[in-house]
Amino acid sequence: MKNLLVIFALLAVTVLQAQELSYKMEELTAIDFVTAVEKSSKTAILPIGVFEKHGPHMPLGTDLYTAREMALRAAEKEYTVVFPWYYFSQINEARHQPGTIAYSPEIIWKVLQETLDELNRNGFDKIIIVNGHGGNNAFLEYFGMAQLSEKRNYSLYWFRPAYDREVIKKAVEMTQNDPYDQHAGNRETSMVKAIVPDLVHTERAGLQSGVDLDRINNLKNVYTGIWWYASYPNHYSGDGSKANAEAGELILNSVVDQFVETIRAIKADNNVPELQERFFIEAENPLETEQ
Q1: Is beta strand 43-48 parallel, antiparallel or unpaired with respect to 126-131?
Q2: pTM, whole model, 2 decimals?
Q3: Which of 6, 184, 185, 198 has its CB 3.0 to 4.6 Å from that of 54, i.e. a possible disulfide?
Q4: What pLDDT, on the 0 to 100 scale, is given for residue 2?
Protein backbone atom coordinates (compact mmCIF):
# COMPACT_ATOMS: atom_id res chain seq x y z
CA MET A 1 0.00 0.00 0.00
CA LYS A 2 2.84 2.35 0.89
CA ASN A 3 4.53 1.70 -2.47
CA LEU A 4 1.28 2.47 -4.29
CA LEU A 5 0.99 5.79 -2.45
CA VAL A 6 4.55 6.68 -3.47
CA ILE A 7 3.80 5.80 -7.11
CA PHE A 8 0.62 7.89 -7.10
CA ALA A 9 2.47 10.79 -5.53
CA LEU A 10 5.17 10.63 -8.17
CA LEU A 11 2.55 10.47 -10.92
CA ALA A 12 0.78 13.49 -9.43
CA VAL A 13 4.04 15.44 -9.35
CA THR A 14 4.78 14.45 -12.96
CA VAL A 15 1.32 15.58 -14.11
CA LEU A 16 1.64 18.84 -12.18
CA GLN A 17 5.08 19.51 -13.68
CA ALA A 18 3.74 18.84 -17.17
CA GLN A 19 0.88 21.25 -16.57
CA GLU A 20 3.21 23.95 -15.26
CA LEU A 21 5.91 23.50 -17.89
CA SER A 22 6.97 26.99 -18.92
CA TYR A 23 6.82 28.01 -22.56
CA LYS A 24 9.53 30.62 -21.95
CA MET A 25 12.81 29.07 -23.06
CA GLU A 26 14.87 31.01 -20.50
CA GLU A 27 12.84 29.55 -17.62
CA LEU A 28 13.26 25.89 -18.58
CA THR A 29 15.82 23.62 -16.97
CA ALA A 30 17.85 21.45 -19.33
CA ILE A 31 15.74 18.43 -18.35
CA ASP A 32 12.46 20.31 -18.82
CA PHE A 33 13.70 21.64 -22.16
CA VAL A 34 13.66 18.11 -23.57
CA THR A 35 10.03 17.74 -22.50
CA ALA A 36 9.19 21.19 -23.88
CA VAL A 37 10.54 20.36 -27.34
CA GLU A 38 8.24 17.34 -27.55
CA LYS A 39 5.25 19.12 -26.01
CA SER A 40 5.63 21.93 -28.56
CA SER A 41 5.61 19.46 -31.46
CA LYS A 42 9.22 20.58 -32.06
CA THR A 43 8.00 24.13 -32.77
CA ALA A 44 9.59 27.34 -31.51
CA ILE A 45 8.68 31.01 -31.78
CA LEU A 46 11.36 33.64 -32.33
CA PRO A 47 9.94 37.09 -31.45
CA ILE A 48 12.05 39.82 -33.06
CA GLY A 49 12.24 43.46 -32.01
CA VAL A 50 14.81 46.25 -31.94
CA PHE A 51 16.08 49.18 -29.89
CA GLU A 52 14.92 52.40 -31.55
CA LYS A 53 13.11 55.65 -30.85
CA HIS A 54 9.32 55.47 -30.87
CA GLY A 55 8.30 59.10 -30.91
CA PRO A 56 8.74 61.25 -27.81
CA HIS A 57 6.48 59.07 -25.66
CA MET A 58 7.29 55.36 -26.17
CA PRO A 59 10.09 53.11 -24.83
CA LEU A 60 13.07 52.15 -27.01
CA GLY A 61 12.08 48.50 -26.59
CA THR A 62 8.54 48.95 -27.93
CA ASP A 63 8.93 46.38 -30.72
CA LEU A 64 10.52 43.90 -28.31
CA TYR A 65 7.61 44.21 -25.90
CA THR A 66 5.03 43.84 -28.66
CA ALA A 67 6.53 40.84 -30.46
CA ARG A 68 7.26 38.98 -27.23
CA GLU A 69 3.81 39.68 -25.78
CA MET A 70 2.12 38.31 -28.90
CA ALA A 71 4.30 35.21 -28.71
CA LEU A 72 3.70 34.61 -25.01
CA ARG A 73 -0.05 35.08 -25.20
CA ALA A 74 -0.26 32.70 -28.15
CA ALA A 75 2.02 30.10 -26.52
CA GLU A 76 -0.16 30.13 -23.42
CA LYS A 77 -3.09 29.00 -25.56
CA GLU A 78 -1.15 26.68 -27.90
CA TYR A 79 2.00 25.39 -26.23
CA THR A 80 5.08 26.50 -28.17
CA VAL A 81 8.56 27.30 -26.87
CA VAL A 82 9.26 31.05 -27.01
CA PHE A 83 12.83 32.27 -27.52
CA PRO A 84 14.03 35.14 -25.26
CA TRP A 85 14.21 38.79 -26.30
CA TYR A 86 15.87 39.12 -29.72
CA TYR A 87 16.97 42.57 -30.92
CA PHE A 88 19.53 42.04 -33.71
CA SER A 89 17.61 43.92 -36.37
CA GLN A 90 17.87 46.22 -39.38
CA ILE A 91 17.53 49.78 -38.11
CA ASN A 92 19.93 51.93 -40.13
CA GLU A 93 17.17 54.47 -40.80
CA ALA A 94 17.18 55.51 -37.12
CA ARG A 95 20.92 55.80 -36.53
CA HIS A 96 20.55 59.57 -36.09
CA GLN A 97 18.29 59.11 -33.06
CA PRO A 98 19.50 58.47 -29.47
CA GLY A 99 19.21 54.92 -28.15
CA THR A 100 19.30 53.20 -31.53
CA ILE A 101 21.35 50.00 -31.58
CA ALA A 102 22.11 49.40 -35.26
CA TYR A 103 24.14 46.28 -35.93
CA SER A 104 25.89 45.80 -39.27
CA PRO A 105 24.07 43.95 -42.09
CA GLU A 106 26.57 41.10 -41.78
CA ILE A 107 25.97 40.68 -38.05
CA ILE A 108 22.17 40.66 -38.19
CA TRP A 109 22.30 38.04 -40.95
CA LYS A 110 24.80 35.78 -39.19
CA VAL A 111 23.17 36.01 -35.77
CA LEU A 112 19.74 35.16 -37.15
CA GLN A 113 21.07 32.25 -39.19
CA GLU A 114 23.08 30.84 -36.31
CA THR A 115 20.13 31.25 -33.93
CA LEU A 116 17.94 29.21 -36.29
CA ASP A 117 20.68 26.61 -36.71
CA GLU A 118 21.08 26.30 -32.94
CA LEU A 119 17.34 25.97 -32.37
CA ASN A 120 17.30 23.21 -34.97
CA ARG A 121 20.32 21.49 -33.40
CA ASN A 122 18.37 21.48 -30.14
CA GLY A 123 15.43 19.64 -31.64
CA PHE A 124 13.13 22.19 -33.26
CA ASP A 125 12.23 21.49 -36.89
CA LYS A 126 9.65 24.27 -37.24
CA ILE A 127 10.55 27.83 -36.30
CA ILE A 128 8.09 30.74 -36.42
CA ILE A 129 9.24 34.33 -36.58
CA VAL A 130 6.93 37.01 -35.21
CA ASN A 131 8.36 40.39 -36.08
CA GLY A 132 7.52 43.56 -34.17
CA HIS A 133 9.71 45.89 -36.22
CA GLY A 134 8.58 47.19 -39.62
CA GLY A 135 12.17 48.01 -40.59
CA ASN A 136 12.87 44.26 -40.73
CA ASN A 137 10.28 43.44 -43.37
CA ALA A 138 12.45 43.65 -46.50
CA PHE A 139 15.34 41.96 -44.69
CA LEU A 140 13.19 39.05 -43.51
CA GLU A 141 11.68 38.49 -46.95
CA TYR A 142 15.11 38.21 -48.53
CA PHE A 143 16.42 36.14 -45.63
CA GLY A 144 13.49 33.76 -46.05
CA MET A 145 14.24 33.29 -49.75
CA ALA A 146 17.93 32.81 -48.96
CA GLN A 147 17.03 29.80 -46.82
CA LEU A 148 16.83 27.94 -50.15
CA SER A 149 20.54 28.59 -50.82
CA GLU A 150 21.49 25.37 -49.02
CA LYS A 151 19.77 22.39 -47.43
CA ARG A 152 18.08 23.10 -44.12
CA ASN A 153 16.81 20.57 -41.60
CA TYR A 154 14.05 22.88 -40.41
CA SER A 155 11.22 24.90 -41.91
CA LEU A 156 11.04 28.64 -41.31
CA TYR A 157 7.69 30.41 -41.11
CA TRP A 158 6.95 34.12 -40.65
CA PHE A 159 3.67 35.06 -38.99
CA ARG A 160 2.34 38.23 -40.62
CA PRO A 161 -1.00 39.21 -39.07
CA ALA A 162 -3.81 40.74 -41.06
CA TYR A 163 -5.43 43.32 -38.81
CA ASP A 164 -9.20 42.89 -38.67
CA ARG A 165 -10.90 45.99 -40.10
CA GLU A 166 -13.78 45.80 -37.67
CA VAL A 167 -11.41 45.53 -34.72
CA ILE A 168 -9.38 48.51 -35.94
CA LYS A 169 -12.60 50.47 -36.49
CA LYS A 170 -13.66 49.82 -32.89
CA ALA A 171 -10.19 50.77 -31.64
CA VAL A 172 -10.36 54.04 -33.59
CA GLU A 173 -13.77 54.79 -32.08
CA MET A 174 -12.21 54.33 -28.64
CA THR A 175 -9.27 56.62 -29.46
CA GLN A 176 -9.00 58.71 -32.64
CA ASN A 177 -8.53 58.52 -36.39
CA ASP A 178 -4.81 58.76 -37.13
CA PRO A 179 -4.05 59.31 -40.85
CA TYR A 180 -0.27 58.85 -40.39
CA ASP A 181 -0.54 55.82 -38.07
CA GLN A 182 2.60 53.78 -38.85
CA HIS A 183 5.19 54.14 -36.11
CA ALA A 184 4.43 55.07 -32.47
CA GLY A 185 1.03 56.28 -33.61
CA ASN A 186 -2.42 55.54 -32.26
CA ARG A 187 -2.49 51.76 -32.79
CA GLU A 188 1.03 50.93 -31.59
CA THR A 189 0.78 53.25 -28.60
CA SER A 190 -2.50 51.64 -27.56
CA MET A 191 -1.00 48.15 -27.79
CA VAL A 192 2.02 49.05 -25.69
CA LYS A 193 -0.20 50.78 -23.13
CA ALA A 194 -1.92 47.40 -22.78
CA ILE A 195 1.42 45.63 -22.29
CA VAL A 196 3.58 48.02 -20.22
CA PRO A 197 1.37 51.00 -19.33
CA ASP A 198 3.91 52.60 -16.98
CA LEU A 199 6.41 53.00 -19.84
CA VAL A 200 4.09 54.93 -22.16
CA HIS A 201 3.74 58.69 -21.71
CA THR A 202 0.86 59.80 -23.91
CA GLU A 203 1.10 63.32 -22.46
CA ARG A 204 4.41 63.68 -24.34
CA ALA A 205 3.05 62.47 -27.70
CA GLY A 206 2.46 66.00 -28.93
CA LEU A 207 5.99 67.22 -28.22
CA GLN A 208 7.11 66.27 -31.73
CA SER A 209 5.40 65.97 -35.09
CA GLY A 210 4.48 62.62 -36.59
CA VAL A 211 3.27 64.13 -39.87
CA ASP A 212 4.76 63.03 -43.21
CA LEU A 213 7.16 65.75 -44.44
CA ASP A 214 7.19 64.23 -47.94
CA ARG A 215 10.62 65.68 -48.73
CA ILE A 216 11.37 63.62 -51.85
CA ASN A 217 8.05 64.05 -53.65
CA ASN A 218 10.00 65.24 -56.70
CA LEU A 219 10.95 61.61 -57.41
CA LYS A 220 8.24 59.37 -58.81
CA ASN A 221 8.62 55.61 -59.28
CA VAL A 222 11.92 55.67 -57.38
CA TYR A 223 13.12 53.84 -54.28
CA THR A 224 15.92 55.26 -52.13
CA GLY A 225 17.09 54.17 -48.69
CA ILE A 226 16.62 57.65 -47.27
CA TRP A 227 12.84 57.51 -47.84
CA TRP A 228 11.85 57.05 -44.19
CA TYR A 229 14.10 59.87 -42.98
CA ALA A 230 12.73 62.07 -45.76
CA SER A 231 9.21 61.53 -44.46
CA TYR A 232 9.61 61.05 -40.71
CA PRO A 233 12.93 62.44 -39.37
CA ASN A 234 11.56 62.39 -35.81
CA HIS A 235 11.16 58.62 -36.16
CA TYR A 236 7.51 59.16 -35.33
CA SER A 237 4.62 58.57 -37.69
CA GLY A 238 1.17 59.29 -36.36
CA ASP A 239 -0.29 60.63 -33.12
CA GLY A 240 -0.28 58.59 -29.93
CA SER A 241 -1.82 61.24 -27.70
CA LYS A 242 -5.27 59.66 -27.40
CA ALA A 243 -4.24 56.00 -27.32
CA ASN A 244 -5.54 53.81 -24.51
CA ALA A 245 -5.01 50.31 -23.12
CA GLU A 246 -8.57 49.15 -23.81
CA ALA A 247 -8.14 49.73 -27.53
CA GLY A 248 -4.73 48.07 -27.33
CA GLU A 249 -6.18 44.96 -25.69
CA LEU A 250 -8.80 44.74 -28.41
CA ILE A 251 -6.15 44.77 -31.14
CA LEU A 252 -3.77 42.45 -29.29
CA ASN A 253 -6.41 39.83 -28.59
CA SER A 254 -7.47 39.81 -32.22
CA VAL A 255 -3.89 39.30 -33.41
CA VAL A 256 -3.18 36.64 -30.78
CA ASP A 257 -6.27 34.64 -31.77
CA GLN A 258 -5.04 34.74 -35.35
CA PHE A 259 -1.55 33.71 -34.23
CA VAL A 260 -2.88 30.74 -32.26
CA GLU A 261 -4.68 29.43 -35.32
CA THR A 262 -1.53 29.99 -37.38
CA ILE A 263 0.61 28.03 -34.91
CA ARG A 264 -1.83 25.12 -35.04
CA ALA A 265 -1.79 25.18 -38.83
CA ILE A 266 2.03 25.24 -38.86
CA LYS A 267 2.27 22.32 -36.43
CA ALA A 268 -0.03 20.30 -38.69
CA ASP A 269 1.72 21.39 -41.88
CA ASN A 270 3.52 18.78 -43.98
CA ASN A 271 3.58 20.72 -47.25
CA VAL A 272 6.47 23.07 -46.50
CA PRO A 273 8.85 20.39 -45.14
CA GLU A 274 8.02 17.98 -47.98
CA LEU A 275 8.36 20.65 -50.67
CA GLN A 276 11.65 21.82 -49.20
CA GLU A 277 13.01 18.28 -49.21
CA ARG A 278 11.99 17.79 -52.83
CA PHE A 279 13.42 21.18 -53.80
CA PHE A 280 16.82 20.49 -52.23
CA ILE A 281 17.05 17.12 -54.00
CA GLU A 282 16.20 18.71 -57.36
CA ALA A 283 18.57 21.63 -56.71
CA GLU A 284 21.43 19.13 -56.36
CA ASN A 285 20.58 17.59 -59.74
CA PRO A 286 18.87 20.27 -61.86
CA LEU A 287 19.37 18.37 -65.13
CA GLU A 288 17.29 15.52 -63.70
CA THR A 289 14.39 17.78 -62.71
CA GLU A 290 11.24 16.78 -64.58
CA GLN A 291 10.40 19.34 -67.27
Answers
A1: parallel
A2: 0.92
A3: 184
A4: 59
